[in-house]
């Protein structure tokens, strides 16, 4: 996910529900599409974060030794400031950036 060019707001935005069903004709279908995209974004962000934090993992399992690493803290804070996956997914859906299809409608 490209986080440098992100124009998605980081806080809650009031949306007109009628805008969500314009593309699919069904509000519930739109919500399912948005939720699946949000899950994809969330999984990608989680993998990216774990990949960056795995560099700081130690082989010691001693609970007494907890090292604070400034880089690790900054990486974590950066990901906390990013917009939530749901907000990104809604923005992508409303801007027509999400490819979706319904196989049950195609068979008819």
Automatic annotation (TrEMBL):
Name of the featured protein: RNA polymerase Rpb6
A GO MF term: DNA binding
A Pfam family per the record: RNA_pol_Rpb6
Example of a GO biological process term: DNA-templated transcription
Domain of life, source organism: Bacteria
Keywords: DNA-directed RNA polymerase, Transcription
Listed transmembrane segments: none
GO annotation, cellular component aspect: DNA-directed RNA polymerase complex
């Amino acid at each position: 996910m490209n986080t440098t060019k992100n124009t998605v707001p980081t806080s809650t935005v009031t949306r007109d529900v009628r805008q969500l069903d314009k593309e699919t004709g069904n509000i519930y279908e739109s919500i399912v599409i948005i939720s699946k995209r949000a899950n994809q974004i969330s999984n990608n962000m989680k993998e990216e974060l774990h990949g960056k934090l795995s560099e700081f993992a130690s082989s010691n399992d001693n609970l007494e030794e907890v090292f604070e690493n400034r880089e690790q803290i900054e990486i974590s804070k950066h990901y906390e400031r990013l917009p939530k996956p749901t907000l990104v997914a809604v923005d992508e859906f409303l801007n027509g950036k999400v490819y979706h299809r319904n196989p049950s409608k195609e068979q008819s």
